[in-house]
Design goal:
This protein is α+β, with helices and mostly antiparallel strands. It folds into three domains: 130 residues, Gcn5-related N-acetyltransferase (GNAT) (Aminopeptidase, 3-Layer(aba) Sandwich), CATH 3.40.630.30; 139 residues, Gcn5-related N-acetyltransferase (GNAT) (Aminopeptidase); 106 residues, SCP2 sterol-binding domain (Nonspecific Lipid-transfer Protein, Chain A). It has a seven-stranded mixed β-sheet with strand order 1-2-3-4-5-14-6, with helices on both faces. The longest helix is centred in the first third of the chain and has 16 residues. The radius of gyration is 23 Å and the shape is globular. 35% of the residues are buried.
Length: 404
C-alpha cells in the first residue's frame, strides 16, 4: 500500500513527538523542567515549524526562526533554519531536501531575504545553496598568560538580568555582518536562562555602560560566554576583572571575532588559539536582498550583468542586470524575463560576472572578496568588472556570537 507523504506545519499538539525526534537526532536528554522551558520558548518565539508526515507519523522536521540580522549596519529579515532532523528509517528518501525547498519558499513569501543555519555537515548544505559566512577565534589562556591588570577610570559592577546589556550589545553587533538583532524574547529565552552565569558591566567615568561580561566559573575554568566592549577602556577594565580570578582558575576560554587582536595585549602572544568555521548563509530572495542591500555610494552608477546559478530556488537563477546608482541604491532587472534592455553582445559579455548563489552570499556578506573567490574559481568574469563591483561592497567582518 502506497504511503501518504505530505509537508505541513508542526503544531503544538505534536510537541512531544517532535522533541522525541530532536533528542534522538542530536543525542541529548532533557529533564521535565527543560522540556517545559523548551515548550514555552517554542510557543513564545515567532517561528514556522514544518514536518514531513508519512501517513500520520513525523518522518522529518525543521524550524525556521523569525530573526533579524545586521548587514553593513542595516537590519534584514532572516530565516534561522534549525532543528533539521529525520528518523533513521526515513533517511535518504529526499525528505530533508523537500523540507529545505519548502522552507525557502515560505521564507521568500514572508520577506526573509536571507537565511542562516549551523550545519552538521558543510558539504550537505552546500548542495542546497548555503555557504559558510562566518568563523570565530577560540582562545584558551592560562592565568599567567592573561593581559596585565590596569587601573581604569570607571568601575565594574555586578548585575542581574539583561536590561543594561541590551544597548551595548546592539551597538556592538551593528559593527559586524551576520550578528543577530536580538529582541526581548531572544534575551529572555536564549541569554537570560544560561545556567550558572555571572554578569558584570563596565561604567566609564561618566557613568555610561561601555561593556559587559557574561561568564561562569566551574571546575577551575573561567568560561567567557560573551565579552562585549565598545571601546578600549571597557576592554582593559573587563580583562583586568577577569584576571582577578587567577587564584581560583587553571584556564580561561572564550570565542571572539576573527578580527580580534587579543594577542596584541599579551606579554607572551604564544597562546592556544584556533579559527573555527561556524555558520552558513544563503540568499533566499535575490532581488529582495540586493534591492535592500546598502552598497557603497560612488561618483557614478555601476551596471553589471550577473549570471546566477541556483539549482534549488528557481526564482534566483538566470541572467540579471544589476544597477547601483550614485547613492548605493540597487535595482535588479531579470534579463531572462525581458526586464532588462541592451544586455546582449560585446558590452554584456565584457561586464558579465558568473557566480553561484552561495558564493554571492560570501561576497555580499564580505566574508570573501571578489579576488579571493576568483582564486578559488567561485566567481568568473574580468578582473576589472569584479573589482568595480567589489569597490561598491561595504567592508565588514562577519561574526555571530549566538547559536540556534
Amino acid at each position: 500500500m502506497e504511503q501518504e507523504v505530505r509537508i505541513e506545519r508542526l503544531g503544538s499538539d505534536r510537541f512531544d513527538e517532535s522533541m522525541e525526534l530532536s533528542q534522538f537526532a542530536f543525542q541529548y536528554v532533557r529533564s521535565e523542567q527543560e522540556l517545559e522551558a523548551a515548550r514555552e520558548r517554542v510557543e513564545d518565539q515567532p517561528s514556522d515549524r514544518w514536518a514531513v508526515y508519512v501517513d500520520d507519523a513525523i518522518a522529518a522536521q525543521a524550524t525556521v526562526l523569525e530573526l533579524h540580522t545586521y548587514i553593513a549596519g542595516k537590519t534584514f529579515a532572516m530565516g534561522g533554519l534549525a532543528g533539521v532532523a529525520t528518523w533513521p528509517e526515513y533517511r535518504r528518501q529526499g525528505f530533508v531536501g523537500k523540507l529545505l525547498l519548502h522552507s525557502l519558499e515560505a521564507m521568500k513569501e514572508k520577506g526573509q531575504t536571507i537565511s542562516f543555519l549551523h550545519p552538521f555537515e558543510f558539504g550537505f548544505y552546500r548542495k542546497f545553496g548555503w555557504e559558510i559566512y562566518t568563523e570565530y577565534k577560540s582562545y584558551t589562556l592560562l592565568p599567567n598568560q592573561l593581559p596585565p591588570r590596569l587601573v581604569s577610570p570607571g568601575r565594574v559592577e555586578r548585575v542581574n538580568g539583561y536590561e543594561l546589556l541590551y544597548e551595548v550589545y546592539e551597538s556592538y553587533a551593528a559593527r559586524y555582518n551576520g550578528s543577530l538583532k536580538r529582541d526581548e524574547k531572544w534575551w529572555k529565552h536564549r541569554i537570560n536562562v544560561q545556567n550558572q552565569t555571572k554578569r558584570v558591566i563596565y561604567r566609564d567615568g561618566a557613568d555610561s555602560v561601555q561593556g559587559y561580561l557574561i561568564y561562569s566559573v566551574a571546575n577551575k575554568e573561567l568560561k567567557i560566554k560573551e565579552l562585549i566592549c565598545l571601546n578600549d577602556e571597557a576592554r582593559d577594565a573587563l580583562w583586568s576583572f577577569i584576571a582577578q580570578h587567577d587564584s581560583m582558575i587553571d584556564k580561561v576560554t572564550l570565542q571572539a571575532p576573527v578580527d580580534d587582536q587579543l594577542i596584541d595585549l599579551l606579554p607572551n602572544p604564544r597562546i592556544k588559539q584556533e579559527v573555527v568555521p561556524y555558520f552558513m548563509a544563503r540568499i533566499v530572495d535575490l532581488r529582495g536582498f540586493v534591492e535592500q542591500y546598502p552598497f557603497v555610494p560612488g561618483e557614478e552608477s555601476l551596471r553589471v550583468t550577473l549570471e546566477i546559478t541556483d539549482k534549488q530556488a528557481s526564482w534566483n537563477e538566470g541572467t540579471f542586470e544589476l544597477v547601483i546608482d550614485e547613492t548605493g541604491q540597487a535595482t535588479l532587472n531579470d534579463a531572462t524575463r525581458g526586464e532588462a534592455e541592451g544586455m546582449v553582445g560585446e558590452q554584456s559579455e565584457k561586464g558579465l560576472i558568473r557566480i553561484g548563489i552561495g558564493a554571492l552570499a560570501m561576497l555580499l556578506l564580505s566574508y570573501r572578496t571578489g579576488a579571493e573567490l576568483s582564486g578559488s574559481k567561485r566567481i568568473h568574469g574580468s578582473a576589472d568588472t569584479i573589482n568595480r563591483l567589489q569597490a561598491r561592497i561595504p567592508e565588514r567582518t562577519t561574526y555571530l556570537p549566538d547559536y540556534f
